[in-house]
């Protein structure tokens, strides 16, 4: 039986955030996840493949924690993932989900400077670039997921292209990523709400008479934007393109955060989705804290939202270190439970912690 640590929202929001405490709970969550890496999640009958997008999202947060931890245990664990899979991406050549693990490989290359860590990713992306998918972004067209026609794909693949561009200095990777990202945004971004539809099938649909904007999907977009901008020159036209979207989303997210500190599973439907969801909310907290740390967002305006968000997420971590209220695999607003988690929720939480730690004075 998992013991759930309950923290009342008003109390958690009032608590000051201390860097040492941020680091302490990040370690607890990271260690719990390593111990439970092969557990079954989202109703699965077998563990996620090590290169699955679910674990790819975990590694993105875990590598941020590894850089903070002062303990090679985490780097060694991550490096063993790459070595055990010969530094290959997952099985589908074009599918963004199967590119996610490339973000880990490129970060490990930065630390270890071993070219074998990035060669398979570079080779596969070169193939995609010279044999680009020509499919429509419409949801039911054949082979449609060969392109980024669902919003969470913008977290999975574009940051890999951006990192590859930054590491190699070859602009072809940036140019390809920009073309595809713009196509997806032109298709899925709602200019009235400044949020992304999960995919075309949600356009025009209503849930309790509100447009359906899935929290986790938009959380992944928001985190993806930050992970891309980290790789770009802040004076470049490409950076400014992403920054414009980021600022629009940040302003909207500030307006729709719940009083408890999380974001509703259907972002415009708080009263219909009162249950917390920690994977999307962790990524919003990550992205907003990053913006303050970069001097992009005003701390007086956005700082309280980060504090409320982080304390809400911490309030859903069990005494053992499991992050609860992570929505299972899906594509739309749904349900989450205090005693259920997912590896990508841990990744999102660790990403959030890495920026909250800096925001409150950690070095």
From TrEMBL:
Keywords: Hydrolase. It holds the Pfam family Glyco_hydro_88. It comes from the Bacteria. The keyword Hydrolase applies. InterPro entries: 6-hairpin_glycosidase_sf, 6hp_glycosidase-like_sf, Glyco_hydro_88, PolySaccharide_Degr_Enz. The keyword NAD does not apply. One of its GO terms (molecular function) is hydrolase activity. Signal peptide: none annotated. This is Glycoside hydrolase family 88 protein. It comes from Maribacter aquimaris.
